């Protein structure tokens, strides 16, 4: 069928009846109508609708030689630098539509599926590995325009370096049985964003010290597989009023714990299992990091543009652009934006085709960008709070503007260049972006997108080719 | 009557029927039962109850020679360093009871009233000044154990340095008429914390450039004075569950815009008006800053203790105390705590009796502390988020723990040293302290408690006695 | 004659007998043999020699249609992006030869002369402007491969915003007479790097508030013009031993005050005078900033490579690469390097031909880079000191290694992976780079290369096109 | 004899003929006349002279019941808080005399000797321990007013956590023989400040992982003991001109490697050896840290006062006090000064007599201060550079002011409020304080005074009593 429409996606999801637990109750009825999920699902549907907008066809879809229907470009395997740019522009368009605030817009996981399939040959001929199942995944996902979540964080029982789990019952998800049908998984994984709101769940293991082989596996199964449960956190939807909660009413994605209650994973869904080396090789040698970073940084740039716009509008609203310390703060955002853009562009300029013929953006620039963003994003949030100052706090609600107290609000909350209602609307946006439960979760999300910032720095240092520079210094020292 | 009890305070407040607007509706019925206010009013009442606790009499109350009833120590005019310490210990006790999270515990404004009255003679013999009315205020407040709010921030219409208001109708509150009865005030003031939740409102003007004399006044009137309206922001009470929202359910204080709709201020309530110099002199020469800082820093220290406790408990819960970067972050909090304490203690050691015989804590150390805290508090909040990491996000609700999904939660959210429920409870506290709408408002509150941090630095620099050090350098340079 | 050789340059300079004052004495004899200047002049000569190295011809020189001799590429007017890259590679080669430590390698001023001449038409038809003289300058410079210094900092009498000079005798250089021969200039300019070590001095005025028209001029005159004096600061050459002072013995450039003692500037050397608007327009509309930044950032990248090499070699020498905080520090340098590179590359990708047909690198990315570097360079210096720790202090001299104490040094200063002498040599390099008088002057130099960092931020903010982002936010807010 | 005079000290030192190696040559003749040492020795002598100044007797000296002569207060064992303050005032007076720039003014080691002797009983009855020898050391030092250096940093061969030395010949100093006479020591220790410029060398071992018992010892021997060599680094004396190098000409202390070439340490000089536990207990349980920190922080406060004076004088010289970012920078210094002072004062207020009857300043506040200073001192240095800007670079020498070029200097280097010579003198001071080799060594010295800053933070965290705060949070959580 090729690309899906928003409605197509929502209908399919409503029918699945995934086991989603929210505030102590299992979600019944259409999930797209549930207060905690309607906003984000509507926003997600709007992305799918862009794919079938006839004006945007060329920008959003591509064709495969042997197929008639158009497919979503986020599934495209890039062979040239031009392809790479097409991918970036498509992802940018989706990000613009959601102002970079949907962390798990479908292109993210589509990209992951594409990169996994493109690198499947790494698993060729290795024990307990099924590269063909990755190809099948890709075909299925592409043709049905499936949506995915994934999860690789293990429960936070003990973060000591030398911790090994000893418990009778698994805590971290493990293989507890292998039989003719497939693997049986029991235990949990933390923090699947949009868990329960997607067609499938892609599960794989991140390499770590002391990992037990029973914790090593990769597979993808439908979200409504028996025994699969999604337990949600509290919702950060502040309410349905756009005026009051312009962001959380639309972009609150929900995170959930994924529980595997003796979940049966059929063999044809398994990509590898119990092969620690293959799992490690696959993550490092595949194009996963290159393409995942490429998507994420594209989105983060759009988000930064939005932040710049919000901040500048506040500066205009209260007329503080003349202060040197304000200019300095704005220039920080500008520098962040330009830096991220330049690094993304460089990753495309330096792209090289890998052994599978896939044009990979250069990892180094992307790694640099992804080490920078977790540091600058929280600062941007802080800058908005510092500029907004007391104006971030005293923000009446939409109903107040609809009540008899309105003339007072109009008079006393006006700014020089904005009427009171517009000004409050703008500041409520700034507040929702940086200070509401939704906003602070965004901050935490960007901080930890690719894991512990401490490890990101370590990895960048370790992977960086430093020999040339060391050699230059040695030569300098040896000149006399 | 002397000190009030919690019940006494609540009854009095319920009877006042202050004009409080919340989410487009005027609050009817007992304000102490309204969802948005019940938590904070209960917490406030619990402070008053400490005063009548017979075990705490000596710590909480004092006697005046000519009076029989005990009075609250926050109203005590200190004559000795010992008095100063008594004041500090009493304020500490209240702060401990609320973990430093009630920004406007009654002792803050009691202290302000005490300092104003103690410095009233500054106004003696000056035009449009009524020092006796300050003495009367103090007597009334002391004897009835009144509670106050105050407000001096003007509407944020335009923050340019050269802005002057030109509008037909006042925006910033102004004197629009003077008659036999008193002053008539029209316009607004921003950000009265606990506005409408106190017996009286103390209004005075902060000196600034280009201030018009019609904006210069100081008075205190009952919160239910005709024409006085309090317009609230959205409530940050997350709900009534202690488990879910341990802080906002108790300590959300509410902020409000104070509207003066042609409010008549009787002459015997006016302290000064239309005398720009007297107003400026009064704020600078009175003991206002010394005592207000002394209270605030006492409370901030207790809050920092609470933050240290929460952070260390998280470190234990997920067992990350071995990491050097974690130790470094904790040491930042410890240094902050020790620094604030040392500066507060120094301000008491260096206290000197002023010309009115009042023992004033030394302003310099307090100014240093109050310039430091707006910078370190947001960092503490960040540290908790950095250590809690993904654990700050995935936090199921109390109802989830009461549902059939509980065994999954118990198994998968346990930590090494805590069961799942206790761990989630702890992390929900950390989240409410730093990431909920309540928590981020606390951050903004500490950042701006005494106004623009940029100006705090300027003031510290300007007021600091630097001549001795300059002279030492001159001598050094002139030695040869 | 086209490109000069090192010897050619030195001979020419020695003959000029510029009036250079050093430590209270006028420099006599060959300046290239003077202790304070021999190192830098030798280094400069080595750059010129690269131009006549037959292996490097294509990389270093270009031809003009009507001319037979090759010219230095730093004089090339780029018409295409390819030309831009040629320029960058040539400048990179010179920077590599001096490890980015020669702030005023000749390509800097050559670039300035090129950009001035390329933009000369801006002055067409304006009062007191002589665009043809700029063309003549370019021709002369190109053909004789002249070397320049320039100076635009005025004496630091008073840095208040509202300062205007009132003194009987000029302090800041001014036009004191105009006659048939030309302009007579009296007064001083601060901080000509390599002042007295170049063929000519290019003088022009930076726009500022309250500038008097008598301070507005631009011209270029020989360094040995009568009345022109260069007063040097203390020399930072630590000595002639490469082991002891590997950098200052080669790259100490010297800075000088330029005194104009009634200097006669012939009309044919004047580009403009007493036209405040033309001067401001010229600096802002010409390609000066684009090309000057392009050169500077090219050099700074090479310097950062050198810093990365030195730091990594220290990490290896004392085997501290395993520490997370060390990895974090190295990753800061790597991120800085990658960021600068990406921004430079983007400036070339986004280059556009200006109205004069010159391919200008995009200013925005370069402005971002030039706002970043003054902040990260001092941090790099700090990182080296933090990693080197006590090893940066205890560094015996070359003579100690040549004395009978050597066996002790060999035994006690060895490191795991380096013998004592090599280790001390390396740490002396690190020390000379960051802690010697030479090293700290480098830090100050990078901090202030393009002026006050506070103003750089302001400019970036002011010039940045923000409207699109503001508009996006407005659209978002107006959706409902 | 009691307190010595400056001359007494110098005569004694000159007679010792310590084996000091400087720039490849052994120092011959009077060390107090050697160019590299004359400045610091003169400065040191001036401190001793203060002790015999009849006006300062009470401030500088104390009496012991059984003795007639006065002794230096830095040797006084404090029994009361009043004694503690006397010690602090005496140390402050010495620090003021040298502007806090002499890191190893004699009171530092006198304090160490006093604290060691006061805690000697810790060694009572333990293997290989000689507490009586510590008492003898104290008596000898007190009565002769001896001066000491010490050294505990081991050679920087390999800083990996798991490094153990394996080499045929010792690198780090070790016991290589024990015989009737005493211990024979071979190997080196790094970084004895003023090594060779003191009467004795106090050697002891800092506890560390994997330490071999042969590296564990503590003793004090005369600096001219046979086989003891001091190998100096390059001198940072910039010259003898006070104008040119106001600080390095007086306060450059020199650091040296201490080589033990089979040095025989007589038994009566040994305090302990080969007892790892006793060594560790002694350092942790003795009052060493309390008193050493107390001295250091007293000095650092005086240094900060000097820095504040220099910075404010620069601000006045170039009239930049109106800028908000300048005020902010100055306020940073002020906050640092007030914080250090408050913490020092608190350590005295909280002092408690230890089991030996010695009034120990509280360690926690001192540890906080000593963790803060290594971070703020480098920032102060940076602030001076940022405010001085280009004025820090272009600084002519004294000879230039004595030459015929002087009128130019007078005219062009004047500032609004200072003549050229005074202004250059001031800026040369600022440069010598922060940018000369002397200045940067001061920065490194303060950064590493008590070792690796990373470990200081760890220690503060580990030692800090956190249980009360954790318990408060537990109680809060358990209230419902």
TrEMBL record, chains A, B, C, D:
GO MF annotations in UniProt: 4-hydroxyphenylacetate 3-monooxygenase activity; flavin adenine dinucleotide binding; oxidoreductase activity, acting on the CH-CH group of donors
InterPro entries tied to this protein: Acyl-CoA_Oxase/DH_mid-dom_sf (IPR046373), AcylCo_DH-like_C (IPR036250), AcylCoA_DH/oxidase_NM_dom_sf (IPR009100), HpaB/PvcC/4-BUDH (IPR004925), HpaB/PvcC/4-BUDH_C (IPR024719), HpaB/PvcC/4-BUDH_N (IPR024674), HpaB_Deino-type (IPR012687)
PANTHER family: 4-HYDROXYPHENYLACETATE 3-MONOOXYGENASE-RELATED
Domain of life: Bacteria
Keywords assigned by UniProt, alphabetized: FAD, Flavoprotein, Monooxygenase, Oxidoreductase
An annotated GO BP: phenylacetate catabolic process
EC id: 1.14.14.9
Sites where the protein binds FAD: 156-159, 193
Residues in HpaB/PvcC/4-BUDH N-terminal domain copies: 6-271
Protein name: 4-hydroxyphenylacetate 3-monooxygenase, oxygenase component
Domain HpaB/PvcC/4-BUDH C-terminal: 280-477
Enzyme class: oxidoreductase
Species in which this protein is naturally found: Bacillus mesophilum
Keyword Oxidoreductase recorded: yes
Gene of this entry: hpaB
Pfam families associated with the record: HpaB, HpaB_N
């Amino acid at each position: 069928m090729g690309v899906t429409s928003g409605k197509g996606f929502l209908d399919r999801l409503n029918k699945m009846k995934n086991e989603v637990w929210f505030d102590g109750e299992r979600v019944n009825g259409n999930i797209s109508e549930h207060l905690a999920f309607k906003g984000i699902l509507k926003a997600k549907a709007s992305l799918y609708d862009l794919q079938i907008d006839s004006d945007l066809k060329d920008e959003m879809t591509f064709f495969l030689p042997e197929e008639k229907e158009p497919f979503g470009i986020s599934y495209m395997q890039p062979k040239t630098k031009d392809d790479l740019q097409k991918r970036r522009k498509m992802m940018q368009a989706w990000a613009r539509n959601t102002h970079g605030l949907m962390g798990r817009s479908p292109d993210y996981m589509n990209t992951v599926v594409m990169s996994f399939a493109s690198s499947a040959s790494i698993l060729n001929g290795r024990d307990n590995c099924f590269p063909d199942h990755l190809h099948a995944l890709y075909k299925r996902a592409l043709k049905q325009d499936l949506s995915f979540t994934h999860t690789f964080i293990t429960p936070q029982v003990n973060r000591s370096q030398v911790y090994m789990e000893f418990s009778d019952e698994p805590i971290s998800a493990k293989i507890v049985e292998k039989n003719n049908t497939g693997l049986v998984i029991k235990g949990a994984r933390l923090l699947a964003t949009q868990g329960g709101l997607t067609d499938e769940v892609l599960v794989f293991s991140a390499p770590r010290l002391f990992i037990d082989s029973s914790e090593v596996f990769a597979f993808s199964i439908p979200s409504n597989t028996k025994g699969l449960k999604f337990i949600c956190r509290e919702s950060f939807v502040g309410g349905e009023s756009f005026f009051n909660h312009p962001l959380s009413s639309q972009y609150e994605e929900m995170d959930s714990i994924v529980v595997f209650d003796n979940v049966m994973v059929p063999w044809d869904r398994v990509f590898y299992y119990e092969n620690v080396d293959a799992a490690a090789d696959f993550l490092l040698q595949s194009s996963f990091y290159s393409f995942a970073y490429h998507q994420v940084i594209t989105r983060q740039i759009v988000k930064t543009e939005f932040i710049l716009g919000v901040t500048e509008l506040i500066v205009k609203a209260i007329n503080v652009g003349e202060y040197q310390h304000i200019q300095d703060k704005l220039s920080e955002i500008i520098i962040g934006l330009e830096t991220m853009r330049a690094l993304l562009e460089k990753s495309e300029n330096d792209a090289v085709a890998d052994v599978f013929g896939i044009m990979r953006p250069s990892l180094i620039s992307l790694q640099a960008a992804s080490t920078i963003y977790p540091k600058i994003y929280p600062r941007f949030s802080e800058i908005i709070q510092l500029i907004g100052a007391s104006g971030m706090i005293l923000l009446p609600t939409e109903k107040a503007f609809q009540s008899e107290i309105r003339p007072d609000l109009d008079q006393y909350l006006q700014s020089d260049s904005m009427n009171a209602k517009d000004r409050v609307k703008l500041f409520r946006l700034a507040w929702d972006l940086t200070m509401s439960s939704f906003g602070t979760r965004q901050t935490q999300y960007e901080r930890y997108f690719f894991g512990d910032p401490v490890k990101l720095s370590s990895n960048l240092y370790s992977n960086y080719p430093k020999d040339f520079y060391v050699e230059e210094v040695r030569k300098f020292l040896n000149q006399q």
